[in-house]
Design goal:
heterodimer; A: 843 residues; alpha/beta; Rossmann fold; 7-stranded parallel β-sheet; 41% helix; disordered C terminus; B: 9-stranded mixed β-sheet; 5 helices; 16 strands; 29% strand; globular; disordered N terminus
């Protein structure tokens, strides 16, 4: 115990002091700091590593206040909530409630603690509105629902404190947007309430600090915005982090790390409980299977990812909690969640993609603060060796990925504004001001707000055809109210920002059966879309054969195939972070730092330097070479898969226009390769192709527009925005209509809206989403600006060592390109060929 | 490849050389990639399932779809009328999405309709969505039409031949190299034909669906509507949905 601890322990009132003492604990400095800030009425962000007693720190001020509340029967208990706890995970809210009940009980504190999630029975939810507990633990969606009712002032009017757990995981997402808007409303209902944010270490704590307090408009406060206080807990022991230096040959490409399998197994055997993180569900499936192939000791190893059936996931989590498992192979589905004390090793297979995620994952091992967490990185290919090395350096330096700058989503705003109308009539000016007090919306232009309001009312179209069908209307006094009770009903069904891709159940049937059998989990509809009966794929730990689709179910049988036929299943794949990319580039450009790399990787880079060139720190290396009758252009931007895919789409369009006949492209996190029929080296030599022009940032103008017009990803993004904003209803299982004739396809809506009102607020919302998400436009444009005049072209007579990994993706990945008509022409040609074939005659 | 696909008859003199040609029970018909059928011998343009005002029909139920669907659909029709200069235009039913849709047509849409009908016969065949006469459309309303040895009607009749119908909104799906394309199409076996829906918000039924495939001889074809022309595919090249 430090001197500081001993001294401040006296600040803790009874019965807390005795309770801490009875357990042999001393309150930690940050726990007392939070108590102090609360007494001063300050909202505070607490940044603390796992195991630091973060949650107790958040609740301590509430427990103390409630304990000091007069217990006189004659003083009635205040009628509303005292403290609200909001977590991104249902399971976490339930777990925290349980952990909170114990001290409350042991100290005999007169406190009612309850949870409210989607699973809470309707009767209890109704009772909670009438007779709220002191502390309510819940999720952002439940907050939105509670705020959209006339009871909200009664419920929240007396609120003293809001505790936001895992704030770093919510901020910066649409769910976070929704929560921030809810907070703005709660603050309007209970101006005295303090906010406590709990967060893991982040690159930019100021954004989270702004989240906690109402923002003035940016101009007034001089650009910085108001901020809550900041308390940083003492860091725990530095993690023990190493990279598996496999004795086997390090593969050129691929993501399965098969070469390190026996070494991974040995690590699992040697430790108590191991979490094995991978980046995609497909990798999880494959690795899990491979581990069981060599599981001679019959170790209890389980599988956990977001597509598995919920009950199966719960079983794994329960077994983990009871310490019955030796290892779990998992995806980001276990990045967050309740603490498992027994985990003593984290293995990260594949590249970590971002330093913040890696730190989060490492923190899942060992929840005792004073002992180091142990983690081993297992690169699956040569580029990943570089990436792992860069990530290790980042973790040692405590360097986090920078947050992606974004502003609050307009589709979420539309949902919120409708919810506010459901709560009761509102004044547009006042609501606008309230919304601007939320951090993500603090710079919201009034025009955007007005457009969203018009959207909620009548769809917000320039052609004002729907006045008489309005969902919300202006009253005589100028305030807005819902037009009829059905609107509130629709709102309640639609609340939330999580739009799942249409999922199909996977049901294991025997032989020819079409019904019965066990449900293994769910897959995205688009994954099944490209399969034919007889195709095999890996799911839920086995190789399955696709048979048929009946309604919303994929029927499969067990397959005896050794290798799955359909490889690509990318659920949950993250692109390489800008921060790590810079680390990899820096390492490549500086041969002095290669000493720390495995010999094979070093040799690979040496030969690249000798045969071609190394990508410079700020330059863009472009290689052109012929191979097998085709010509290749390989560029190394290191900007992540999403930005590279967008770039590939745009470059192939440009090459097509220049009549250089590209056939397709493939991209990975580090490079992209375009291949075609024309000799690109020759075209560059003859001046017919200028690389400066080809990579000019003006591709983000008309070329981008032309591509977006038919881009499937824009249509998918639009569908999500349309659902969140409440333009179309969510599809609920069972409610789905059978005939496609009556199902409204959002693709058709997108086409019509884009042609007739390209600036509509929903299209703007979709553009904003796609630009930051699926297309990574910001990163792409940043890169194009950076490399202007810095393209380093090398003409080669054959493939370079650095190009091999991306070249190996050809044929493995789906070919890029959106030209649907080309596909139809190809199918038509097959028919012609078949018709013209002279092999036999039918009578 | 030197061979030209059969549906892409290249006739340089024809202003509509993007249109394919098919024979239906002896009649020569041109397939317009916008989704209409031109019958040169009769100088007749045939379209189906415009579902005008489907958007406002949804809006009345609280789903405010963009109110531009009727306009988009009529602009397609207007372009085809411009292209073929037909003597008559026949719409094979479900021209309007519901019985009151006519009264909801906006001024711009009414203007478009007037322009389309100017100087030619407009024949509106009744559909299940619009069984009654719709005064806003003008022209002639009739249950079905027999012309040039063919019958034009809304709903395909079981076992019928020499028939052109709508109602089913055929679409075809093609899966190639890990990608799927789903497009509206004309479906025909050379004896009868089902038209694609023209309506901007009209959904589709897969040609491999029993209801559609059951109408035809086993070796029927789908002519998919592409960006600039139609693509002729044998039914077995088309994939069922999903």
């Amino acid at each position: 115990m430090t001197v500081l601890d001993r001294q401040s322990a006296t600040d803790l009132p009874e019965p807390f002091r005795s309770w801490f003492a009875s357990r042999g604990w001393a309150p930690r400095a940050h726990q007392l700091a939070l108590l102090e800030r609360a007494r001063q009425g300050r909202s505070t962000l607490l940044i603390a590593p796992t195991g630091a007693g973060k949650t107790l720190a958040g609740f301590l001020p509430t427990l103390v206040e409630l304990a000091e509340r007069p217990r006189n029967r004659n003083t009635p208990r205040p009628p509303g909530l005292h403290t609200l706890y909001i977590s991104p995970l249902k399971a976490l809210a339930v777990d925290v409630a349980r952990n909170l009940e114990r001290p409350a009980e042991e100290m005999r504190l007169p406190i009612r603690i309850e949870t409210r999630t989607g699973d809470t029975p309707a009767s209890r939810r109704q009772r909670q509105r009438r007779d709220p507990p002191d502390i309510l633990l819940t999720t952002p969606e439940q907050i939105a629902l509670l705020l959209a009712s006339a009871d909200a002032p009664h419920l929240f009017g007396e609120l003293r404190r809001i505790v936001l757990d895992e704030l770093h995981a919510l901020a910066g997402s649409k769910r976070g947007d929704l929560l921030s808007l809810g907070l703005a409303r709660i603050r309007a209902l209970a101006p005295e309430a303090q906010t406590v944010g709990l967060s893991a270490t982040v690159a930019d704590p100021d954004t989270l600090r702004r989240w906690l307090v109402p923002q003035n408009s940016r101009e007034e406060s001089g650009g910085d915005g108001e901020m809550g206080d900041l308390v940083i807990a003492e860091a725990g022991a530095a993690p023990e982090l190493s990279m598996l230096d496999s004795v086997a040959h390090v593969p050129w490409a691929g993501h399965t790390a098969k070469h390190s399998l026996s070494e991974i197994y040995a690590l699992i055997t040697a430790n108590t409980t191991t979490l094995v993180f991978v980046n995609t569900r497909m990798q999880a499936e494959l690795l899990f299977q491979e581990l069981w192939h060599i599981n001679e000791l019959n170790l209890p190893i389980a599988l956990h990812h977001g597509s598995l059936d919920v009950s199966q996931r719960r079983r794994v989590e329960a077994a983990m909690g009871e310490g019955r498992l030796k290892a779990v192979v998992c995806t980001s589905s276990l990045d967050l969640g309740i603490d498992w004390g027994a985990v003593d090793l984290v293995i990260n297979v594949g590249a970590p993609k971002g330093s913040s995620r890696l730190m989060q994952r490492i923190g899942r091992a060992n929840h005792r603060l004073d002992e180091p967490s142990r983690a081993v990185l297992v690169p699956a290919n040569r580029f990943e060796v570089l990436e792992c090395r860069a990530a290790m350096e980042a973790v040692r330096a405590g360097a986090q990925d920078g947050a992606v700058e974004r502003s609050g989503a307009l589709d979420v705003l539309a949902q919120h504004v409708l919810g506010m109308a459901c709560a009761g009539p509102f004044d547009a000016d006042a609501l606008y001001e309230e919304i601007c007090s939320a951090e993500p919306y603090s710079a919201l232009p009034r025009k955007d707000f007005d457009d969203v309001l018009a959207f909620d009312a009548t769809g917000g179209y320039a052609l004002r055809a729907y006045e008489r069908f309005a969902r919300i209307r202006q009253m005589k006094d100028g305030r807005w109210r819902v037009a009829n009770p059905m609107v509130a009903q629709q709102y309640r069904l639609n609340v939330g920002t999580i739009v799942e891709a249409t999922m199909l159940k996977v049901r294991l049937v025997g032989g020819k059966a079409r019904y019965g059998g066990r449900v293994l989990g769910e897959v995205e509809e688009y994954f099944v879309e490209t399969m034919s009966p007889g195709d095999t794929f890996v799911f839920a730990g086995e190789i399955l054969e696709y048979r048929a689709i009946v309604e919303d179910t994929v029927l499969v049988v067990r397959s005896h195939a050794k290798e799955p036929k359909v490889p690509s299943y990318e659920g949950g794949k993250f692109p390489l972070s800008t921060f790590l990319a810079a680390g990899v580039r820096a390492m490549l450009a500086d041969p002095a730092r290669w000493k720390s790399l495995p010999a094979q990787v070093r040799e690979w880079l040496e030969i690249q330097r000798w045969r071609s060139r190394l990508p410079g720190r700020e330059d863009l290396l472009v290689e052109t070479f012929p191979r097998g009758g085709r010509h290749y252009l390989v560029a190394y931007p290191f900007e992540g898969r999403l930005a590279h895919q967008t770039l590939g789409m745009l470059l192939t369009r440009r090459l097509e226009r220049a009549r250089l006949k590209p056939l397709g492209f493939v991209a990975n996190d580090y490079a992209l390769a375009i291949y075609g029929i024309s000799d690109l080296s020759l075209a560059i030599r003859q001046g017919r192709l200028d690389l400066g022009d080809l990579f000019d940032a003006d591709m983000l103008g008309d070329d981008l527009e032309a591509w977006l017009a038919e881009a499937a990803l824009m249509k998918r993004t639009f569908r999500q925005c349309a659902i969140i904003a409440g333009l179309i209803e969510r599809r609920f299982p069972g409610k789905e209509k059978n005939s496609r004739q009556v199902t409204m396809s959002t693709d058709l809506v997108y086409d019509v809206l884009r042609a007739h009102e390209p600036d509509h607020v929903l299209l703007r919302a979709a553009r904003q989403d796609a630009a930051t998400g699926l297309m990574d436009l910001k990163r792409l444009s940043g890169m194009l600006m950076r490399i202007r005049g810095r393209i380093d072209h090398v003409e080669l007579d054959r493939v370079s060592p650095l190009a091999v990994p991306v070249m190996l993706e050809i044929g493995r990945e789906m070919v890029g390109g959106e030209a649907a008509d080309a596909l139809l022409a190809e199918a038509e040609d097959e028919l012609v060929e078949e018709a013209m074939r002279g092999d036999h005659r039918v009578q | 490849m030197a061979i030209t696909a059969c549906s892409e008859v290249a006739d340089a003199a024809d202003p509509s050389d993007a249109a394919g040609t098919i024979a239906l029970a002896g009649a020569e018909l041109r397939l317009d990639p916008a989704g209409g059928l031109f019958w040169p011998a009769e100088r007749m343009l045939i379209v189906a399932d415009l579902h005008l005002e489907k958007g406002s029909s949804f809006a009345a139920r609280g789903i405010a779809l963009p109110p531009y669907d009727s306009r988009a659909t009529l602009m397609l029709l207007a372009a085809m009328v411009e292209r073929w200069r037909p003597r008559a235009v026949v719409s094979l039913g479900d021209t309007l999405h519901d019985r009151r849709a006519g009264s909801r047509l906006g001024p711009a849409e009414r203007d478009l309709l007037a322009r389309i009908g100017h100087g030619r016969e407009m024949l509106w065949i009744a559909g299940n969505h619009d069984p009654d006469v719709v005064p806003e459309l003008g022209g002639v309303h009739l249950p079905e039409l027999a012309v040039g040895g063919l019958v034009l009607r809304h709903e395909p009749r079981a076992g019928a031949v020499r028939e052109i119908a709508g109602h089913l909104h055929p679409v075809a799906r093609v899966v190639r190299r890990g990608r799927a394309v789903r497009r509206r199409c004309f479906a025909t076996d050379g004896r009868r034909l089902v038209m694609p829906a023209l309506g901007a918000y009209a959904g589709g039924l897969n040609v491999r669906d029993r209801v559609l495939a059951g109408l035809f001889a086993p070796s029927f074809e789908a002519h998919l509507i592409g960006g600039a022309r139609t693509y002729r595919l044998a039914h077995h090249v088309c994939a069922p949905d999903r």
